[in-house]
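Review form for a predicted model. The reviewer records the input and the model, then writes brief findings.
Reviewer: anonymous (R2)
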Amino acid sequence: MSLTKAERTIIMSTWSKISTQADAIGLETLERLFTSYPQTKTYFPHFDLHPGSAHLRSHGSKVVAAVGDAVKNIDNISGALSKLSELHAYILRVDPVNFKLLSHCLLVTVASHFPVDFTADAHAAWDKFLSVVSSVLTEKYR
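Model under review:
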């Protein structure tokens, strides 16, 4: 699945706004993930999973930074996220479905932070982009 020029433009434009609130968006995305899909907590037994915890803030920042790496390398997402894919597949052994759950939570969070900017076209572009990211992150599982 490849992104059109218009979709790439939307992703880059929206990312410029998301990146200014990256820490808050990352934290809220993880809080939403763990609330909506509590089974995902099993991968974080060593984390304090209470809302607003330092662990959630730190990992949320890493998640959004990885999305930022994908945006910055939109023409080579696979290369940009290769090491992250290996980590999650071979060492952490995260169930691949969790990337889709996380993507959904990120979409909802971004939409709630930027309701005016998150038009139907933006939603479709981000959904497609995050599907590509999820696919790349599960490449090593195959």
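Findings: The mean pLDDT is 91.
Further findings: Residues 44 and 51 are 14 Å apart (CA to CA).
Recommendation: see findings above.
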